[in-house]
Amino acid sequence: MASAAVRLPSLNMPPKHPAVSPSVATKTRKSYSRKNEEAHKILADWGLSLQDNSLPFEGHICAPETIIFGSQEVAGSQLADWGRESSREKVIMPVDLMPRRWLVIFSPRDQECARNFCNMMRTVGRSIGIQVGEPLMVQLHDDRTESYVVTLKQQYHSQLYNHFQKE
């Protein structure tokens, strides 16, 4: 049975689709399509095929935008990548995650990932000006989708009930 659990990615891993130049992308596509008979068959089943040449066209390239953070402005790049700055600069209007007012639901085998995720949230939160309190940690008995849905509904209704009891 396939697992419905979501794996938390490592923050040290490179992106799955790094930016590559059009010429590199075209060369990779050509190389893959020539070598892969299965790809040819799948395309042929749909009445499709790939040509060896690409259709060149001119496009408009916009100037990079300035990204405004709470503490400074950062010049954008041609790659539109400001991930590093977004995890270091203070946000304009922080919204703190109060203790036990946010929820992490995880399966038994993902307990360590959930703990690492919470630690990462506190670390990044501190650097961008958001206080991150301890979450309500809810471990499921299994990783079935239904278990996540039922637990989320229970926790939501419980939090909603507690909120109105305080007023």
From TrEMBL:
Residues 1-33 are annotated as: Disordered. It comes from the Eukaryota. This is Piwi-like protein 1. It comes from Portunus trituberculatus. The gene is Piwil1.
